[in-house]
Each structure stands twice: as structure tokens, then as C-alpha cells.
Design brief:
Length: 238
């Protein structure tokens, strides 16, 4: 069975995310691995959404052994060993805060064994802009041109709920840098895709990403996650 590693949102509710998509996993014949990054050990946006790659007070990037991102590859190895799986790679999906984790994971982690990835309805993004400080850009980040090339070449789907328009949640990022990406999650997702596509073209690098806009769906992992699984196993694109 193929392995899907699924990243939960800001509520740190991996069990609820599993319940949302267990029927989809049954339909597509895959197994879901859903790590839970609890608030006690991975407190705040910095240690989860941002992967614990940066120490804000010192304005310095941490070594990769301290990254939350660095747990995913060993987790996959553990699951393969425990289940005697013959999987050589995994599918990676994240929604909301998990989408933030996933798109940054793809930029920072060297040569992850990701077959395809999909992420949906992130609140805001880190852009591949070397003139902007982290977390809104990657100035001075340990990301080289070769890594960016792998990032753009990954088979990736940016899935956006067209009704994800609410901005009144307490945790919604309304800083100037986030607002510059768009007013709503839907707007920010569209602008993110447009920006990274333009960056790949500027660098003359192959770009293997697809944007999928889902009508009549808001900030809803259960409904939008089904589209992610379909892109993994049915290769739906438009």
C-alpha cells in the first residue's frame, strides 16, 4: 500500500484529520501516517508551521538536526520497517497549518523521498525570494540553487478552496507581510502559485506544479483532502 504522510493544522489534531480522510484512504488503498506535533514539545508557529529552522531572537538559521522538518524522513523509515512495506517513497499532504509545514519542508529538506505532494489552504507562505527575510522569504536561508531546482521539479498540487474567504479567526495572520500576499487564504494561495511559477521561469528551471481551485469548499480538510488523494492516485489535473 502506498504511504501518505499527512500534516495536521494549527489545532494539532492529527486524529481528527485521520477521521476526515479514512474513507478516502480506503477508496484509494493507501495508508495514512499522521504525526502529531503537540503544543508542549512544538510550541507555536515557529516550531511547527515554520519547521523550527530559525531562531528569531538571534536571527540565525538552526542546524538541520533541530528542525521539525527533519522528523519526516526517519518517520517514513520507521513505518516501512514496522509494516514491512516495500515503499521507496511517500506522498505528502498538509492542510492549513500543515500546508505551511509542507511547502517549507519542500524548500528546506534536501532530497526528500516525496513521490507527489499536495497542500491546501495555507494561511500564508514563504516565497522563494532571496531579497526578503525569513519567514516571508529565504534571504540567507540554507537553500541553494540545486535545492530550488528540486523544489520546482517536485510533482506538486496547490489545492485551494474557493470559499476559503474568512479572515476573522484569532490566529489569522494580518501582518503587513502577510496582507501583501492577499486578503484571504484563497487569494494568498493564488498569488503564491503565480509567484513561484514566475520565479521558476526567471531561473529557467523546470516547473512541475499544478494549481487546483475547488468550488463550494472553504477551510475544510475533509472535503479538500479528497481532492489531494485523487491527485495522488488518479492524477487529476486542470
Amino acid at each position: 500500500m502506498p504511504v501518505v504522510v499527512m500534516l495536521h493544522g494549527a489545532n494539532r489534531d492529527a486524529g481528527a484529520y485521520m477521521n476526515d480522510l479514512i474513507n478516502a484512504a480506503t477508496v484509494f488503498g493507501c495508508k495514512i501516517i499522521a504525526p502529531e506535533f503537540d503544543q508542549e514539545d512544538y510550541r507555536g508557529v515557529e516550531k511547527y508551521n515554520l519547521g523550527n529552522v530559525y531562531e528569531k531572537n538571534k536571527k540565525t538559521f538552526l542546524s538541520s538536526d533541530k528542525w521539525s522538518f527533519s522528523l519526516i524522513e526517519p518517520l517514513f523509515d520507521y513505518v516501512v520497517a514496522q509494516t514491512k512495506s516495500n515503499s521507496k517513497g511517500y506522498y505528502l499532504y498538509g492542510h492549513s497549518g500543515g500546508a505551511q509545514f509542507v511547502h517549507r519542508f519542500l524548500m528546506f529538506v534536501k532530497q526528500p523521498r516525496v513521490i507527489k505532494t499536495a497542500f491546501s489552504n495555507a494561511g500564508w507562505y514563504t516565497l522563494p525570494n532571496t531579497d526578503t527575510e525569513f519567514p516571508y522569504g529565504i534571504k540567507n536561508a540554507p537553500i541553494d540553487q540545486q535545492q530550488l531546482a528540486r523544489f520546482f521539479a517536485t510533482k506538486a498540487f496547490v489545492i485551494l478552496g474557493m470559499d476559503d474567504l474568512s479572515t476573522d479567526e484569532k490566529s489569522y495572520n494580518i501582518t503587513d507581510d502577510a496582507e501583501a500576499q492577499g486578503k484571504t487564504r484563497f487569494d494568498r494561495g493564488k498569488n503564491y502559485f503565480k509567484t513561484i511559477k514566475a520565479k521558476a521561469e526567471e531561473l529557467k528551471l523546470p516547473f512541475n506544479w499544478t494549481q487546483i481551485d475547488v468550488p463550494n469548499v472553504g477551510h475544510d480538510n475533509g472535503n479538500i483532502g479528497k481532492f489531494a488523494f485523487a491527485t495522488f492516485f488518479m492524477d487529476i489535473q486542470k
